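Slide 14.
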Amino acid sequence: MTPAPHPLLRAYRPSDHDELVSLWSRCGLLRPSNDPGRDIQRKLAYDPNGLLVLEADGRLAGAVMAGYDGHRGWVNYLAVDPAYQGQGLGRLLMHEAERRLLAAGCPKVNLQIRTSNEQVVAFYQHLGYDVDDVISMGKRLIDDAAATSARREAGSQ
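Slide 15: predicted structure.
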């Protein structure tokens, strides 16, 4: 475990792109149907202030994506580099995300966790989150993996 003295919480900068994608990968957050670069572009186009990064020892040690849709706040892509976990950085990121959501008038925060990720469920419960009696449903409107494949095929013709 690497000590993280004096972490710097700040807004995402374009120069963070590769390090952020690498962080998400190390934390097991990437899925083939989501292109992380596109997720970053989409967030920046819609709400650039909702993507925060945490620097420690001159590198990205954590990040969080948060937003408010006027009804609920959402937290996505919370990540802390495995080398820095257990030092309160996830708690720091969540506190700042919650602070910003509350300042926007957000009454409730939602997040989604894979049911198999018991360690992360315990982390959020420790922060005061409860399991809601709901079913989370989704429908993929843009499959980034398919779109990337189609662009590659069109470019090779």
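Speaker note: The chain has one domain: 8-155.
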